[in-house]
Structures are given as C-alpha cells and as structure tokens.
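re: that chain from earlier
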Amino acid sequence: MSSNILVKRICEECGAVFLAKTTMTRFCGMRCNRKNYKGRVRQRKVEASDNETAKKIAPKKATLQQEFLTIKDVCLLLNISRTTLWRLAKEKKIKVNKIGDRSIIRRKEIDNLF
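^ sequence. v structure.
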C-alpha cells in the first residue's frame, strides 16, 4: 500500500532529520538501518557470551547447599585446583568417599576443614 504522506522523522542511528513516507520508518536510509542491525546482532552475541561465561564461573547455588558435593563443585566452592584437593585428601584433611567410579565429599568435611 503506497502512501502520499511525508512525515518529518529523526533517524534513530545518526540523528539526522529526514522525510519518511510512513509513520513506522525509524532510519533515514539503508546505511543507518544496516548499521543499527549489526549493532543489535553484536550486542546479542556479547550478552550470550557473557551469560555463558557467568554460568561457567559461578558455582550453582543449589549445588552448594547439597549434603554431598562432587570434586568439581568442591573445587569451585573452595577456589582451588583438583590437584590441591587431591593433595588435601592424601594428607587426610578431607575424606573423599567413592560410590562406584564417582568421588564425592560430604559438606561436613569441608566445614570441618576450616
């Protein structure tokens, strides 16, 4: 549907005043439209990357409240490496229990360490 109206608008990207043929027009031309689109795509990628990084770094709150923790959870909780954790286990400062092939540590063992 074509329109015979001309509406003065301000470009959301560059701020230039232009005449739009519809009331929905946001940009003065394809150049500003593409520039804005690329910026939005870039922002989404950065946010997705930030969220992924936050998930990898931050330990799960629900996991830290459990009675039994995995080796990975204990390392995140204490901010130590696996090697250090196994050294503590070898020195009998932390007791590591095995269930099948899995190694777990009771929450009380960590609390008793301090």
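Helices lie at 30-57, 61-64, 71-78, 82-90, 107-113.
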